[in-house]
Amino acid sequence: MGSIVIRRHRLSTRLWHAVNAVSIFVLIGSGLGISNAHPRLYWGAYGANLDHAWATLPRFPAWLTIPASYNLAISRRWHLFFALVLAFSLLVYLIVALLDRHIARDLRVRARDLSPAHLGADLRAHLRLRFHDPAAPGAYNVLQKLSYVGVLFVMLPLVILTGLALSPGMNAAWPWLLDVFGGRQSARSLHFIAMAAIALFTIVHLAMVILAGPWNELRSIVTGRWRVPE
Description:
mainly alpha, two-stranded antiparallel ribbon, 9 helices, 63% helix
């Protein structure tokens, strides 16, 4: 019997995935370049060299930063531009995903998904490198749903809103935003934490793609066509 090929990802998902992948790559690289200017994190409204920092970050190497040579002004320009790309592309994607019921159909987390038995079975299947349910090929498993929902509705909005809170222009327009996060330095700390969580998700996501079959997974996100594993 020949392999079964199904259409797994819609055009809107594939386009947003491509834009998002480039944006995240540039934002992390330029963000690490900005971090090198003052690699200390604080809570509250103020923070300087003599203040107590809750974390002191390493100086990130040139191969991780954008640009490779230390240049705070250029890092900020790259960061601001792709922050706008990320924010508006996420807004458009979520609107389309709500209208075509992608979120309700594919990402909805039901109560039974969160039962210990269901979570345990899904975890054991992942440990055996079985990432897809033969009874529902192409459907997301519960760990995928939880991670995607966490990124779409928690981590990305958090990194965008804390980034807005760090903008002097937005402080003038929305002065209450800094109060929501407890001050500029708290917003900066939360911004870095959200970025680190997104970076960790990206690493795990790429590892899962490799383990699940990179060519099949890559083809599905480029063309939408996915071969059901035998």
